[in-house]
Amino acid sequence: AQTVTQSQPEMSVQEAETVTLSCTYDTSESDYYLFWYKQPPSRQMILVIRQEAYKQQNATENRFSVNFQKAAKSFSLKISDSQLGDAAMYFCAYRSEAGANSKLTFGKGITLSVRP
Amino acid sequence: DTAVSQTPKYLVTQMGNDKSIKCEQNLGHDTMYWYKQDSKKFLKIMFSYNNKELIINETVPNRFSPKSPDKAHLNLHINSLELGDSAVYFCASSQALKGNTIYFGEGSWLTVV
Q1: What pairs with residue A79 in β-bridges?
Q2: Which of A62, B60, B86, B100 is most solvent-facing, going by the fewest CB within 10 Å?
Q3: CB-based contacts of B53: which residues, under 8 Å, 6+ apart?
Q4: Which sign does the torsion angle of CA A96, A98, A102, A108 carry?
């Protein structure tokens, strides 16, 4: 079974600076998808970024980018120019290749605080 | 329009009661899910349905029964509620064979007293 590990429970960053959130996973599959979701205090789950394992290029979405190291099974999220609105819980998640029985497996999450 | 909508958003009920949470998606997806987020904020899948057929049924008490009347709806019925059922329940949907991003509803906060 796949597992996702987020070893840092909390991180803090100064507004306008850059922070990196770590995630590792364990799988025997070669094709899969990785995601970062943001959960603000409202508890809504918001997709931040996704990465297809077959793509070597790291995904980027505005201030958010990932460092995907397939061999190391590492998938970190970098937030540049941090804003107060980035304060939230961030979950790393894994999903097997497309299929009806595919599901998201989540890490335990990391709480990010942003200092003004 | 909200893509994945759940009702109710908040629910406070007494132990022993039976309650339902409804979910609808207007994304045209063929797969829907229920996830539970516990007090430690850990998210775990409970069920998934593909084209109204139960696909994933994790180790969940029999008191939890999902029902999918059509591809756009997946409801969750809970019998004989217990204190430990207090959690946030998320409905979600995706397209099984392509896309692969799973979209979540806003969550339903269930408190059992």
Answers
A1: A19, A64
A2: A62
A3: none
A4: positive
With an 8 Å Cβ cutoff, are B41 and A102 in contact? no
Q: What stretches in chain A show pLDDT beneath 50? A: none
Could you say which of A99, A104, A108 has the minimum Cβ distance to residue B96?
Answer: A99
Residues contacting residue B39 through CB under 8 Å, at least 6 positions apart? B86, B87
Percent of chain B's residues with pLDDT above 70 = 96
| Residue from the list A37, A98, A100 with its beta carbon closest to the beta carbon of B98 | A98
Q: State the nearest Cα–Cα gap between B15 and chain A, in angstroms.
A: 24
Phi-psi region of A114 (alpha: psi -120 to 50; beta: other; left: phi over 0): beta
Handedness of CA B3, B4, B5, B11 (dihedral sign): negative
Q: Which of A29, A31, A56, A34 is nearest to A47 (CA)?
A: A34
